[in-house]
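TL;DR need structure tokens for one chain.
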Amino acid sequence: MNSTAVSLPTNDIDLAPEYGISEWPDTVSLYERLAALVRQPIRPIRRENMTTVLEYFQEKCVASLRVSEEASRVIPGGVQHNLAFNYPFPLAFTEAKGAYLTDIDGNRYIDFLKAGGPILLGSNDPTVRKHVVELLDSCGPVTGLLHEYEVKLAEVVCEAMPSIEMFRMLGSGTEAVMAALRLARAYTGRKWIIKIGAGYHGWSDQMVYGMRLPGTGRREAIGIPRSSTAYIQERYPNDLGALRRTLMLNRLRGGTAAIIVEPLGPESGTRPVERDFNRQLQILCKEFGALLIFDEVVTGFRVGMGGAQGYFGVKPDITVLGKCLTGGYPMAGGIGGRSDVMMLLAGGIGTTSKRAFVGGTLSANPLSCAAGYFGIQEMRRTGAAVKAGRAGDRLRKGLDGIIERLGLPFVAYNMGSIVHLQTSGVMLMSMRNPLKVMKEAGPRKHMMEEMGAAFSAHGLVTLAGSRIYTGLADTDEVIDDALNRFEDVLKLV
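>> reply
TL;DR here they are.
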């Protein structure tokens, strides 16, 4: 298996201009650097500098603190979603436009969170907004009945994604994964599902198994009966030998229904797969009669119009789409795949044919489908994925230079517009060394939280202080401004 930095293979060269990943990371070298980061003591922001960072929130974010305190009285934990958590308290935002966010106190930030990935065109894109407003004026957001934009959206998804012949809209990525697992079991008549370890596939009972850190099993499965995860297995990314052994064992126990993977690697490439890994997965699935499920909730359209499957030249049997599908508008999720597989989701009441039941009153509502249809059209027209990928390349190269100049052990890498900046290494730990996890996970996590706070105090909104999404609105000027801000933060270490 080739693990070195390479351009697209020969049969992908004609597709290269459509994709935002200019070069796949050298995974061997990258994992060596990440392992070195995890081995050494953490390098947090110096205490006197952290005091200054916290003063920003106390002095400049007074209204956000008020809203946060009010939220904590009526919302468990004070936030509805983990993305909204920010140390020392969540910031409340009132405006999103292009490359920027503005909080309730009037502070402006460069938006590298991108709502967790779906904002590729830039926040509140005016072209998409115009069409959505027109639809709301004429139809409203939901009818509960068939609407033409359901068909239009399904058509553009089938046209763009190489493996998708039919498409079914749902309400979220979590719902779509649930439906994909049910569909795989219904089609194959088998029970076992193998997930590539530490991947995030939503919060359903089954997929909480082995979440975040590889080898954690049911660690996060609070309130979930063991029976719900009884047929879920987890295998480390890039370990094809262990995966084959599991498939062979499952063959003796009725067979494997599906393997589900984030095609860049778990947690949007936090643990990158080797360049040929997905092709090898496809070969194994064909050999053992299992379906291959690509979770493209983040990568769909962000990597390119054909998603990660187009970039890698691999056709999964089922593709999961989520927030990427509508560019940040609500009720975004769906699954697509081969017609013979997808027909098991045929709707209707009282049918006697075999089917996997999937529902959702607000799924495929006119608002979401129109936003998705016009958003995808605009992504194609502007070449958004490629331009966002170039911005990611520019940002990562700049971060590499800063890290080298300052003599820091931190590691920056990217897959196009998905940029990772690992400073504490907490996301790279695993249960292969449980004592280290028990001893160091807490301090490393807190260091990452402090780093995220320092980024915010310098006008940068990131995902947990370690993941950065770029988009069409991130011009060279925006990226260069951001690099100056990142350097100011890293000088505080």
